[in-house]
């Protein structure tokens, strides 16, 4: 019973982590309009814009890999939870 509780707690932590990673991924953006305006006025900010855009893309890729890993771990925890429940743990009225 203790391991089931631990698995359930771990699953809740993973869900929180997944939610945060997805929010971070969705909020990670390069403001192209601002970079365009600065580039027009300075003429040389295009290099900075390219670096900022590249850095944002790399961070989004890393976050996506993190999201995939968390989802895989959630599936593993779900499988472990399903295996930990046996027929005698499930009330018989559910089968009627």
Alpha carbon gap, first and last residue:
25 Å
| Biggest beta sheet attributes | none
Number of strands: 0
Low-confidence parts: none
Portion in helices: over 70%
CA radius of gyration is 23 Å
The coarse silhouette is rod-shaped
**In terms of structural class, how would the helical and strand content be classed?**
mainly alpha
Number of helices: 3
Percent of residues in β-strands: under 5%
The whole-number mean of residue pLDDT values reads 87
Query: Helix and strand string, N-terminal first?
Result: HHH
Q: What can you tell me about this protein's structure?
A:
- This protein is mainly α.
- The protein is rod-shaped, with a radius of gyration of 23 Å.
- The protein starts with a helix and ends in a 12-residue tail after the last helix.
- α1 runs antiparallel to α3 and α2 (32-42) packs antiparallel against α3.
- The protein has helices spanning 2-27, 32-42, 45-84.
- The longest helix has 40 residues, at 45-84.
- It contains 3 helices and no strands.
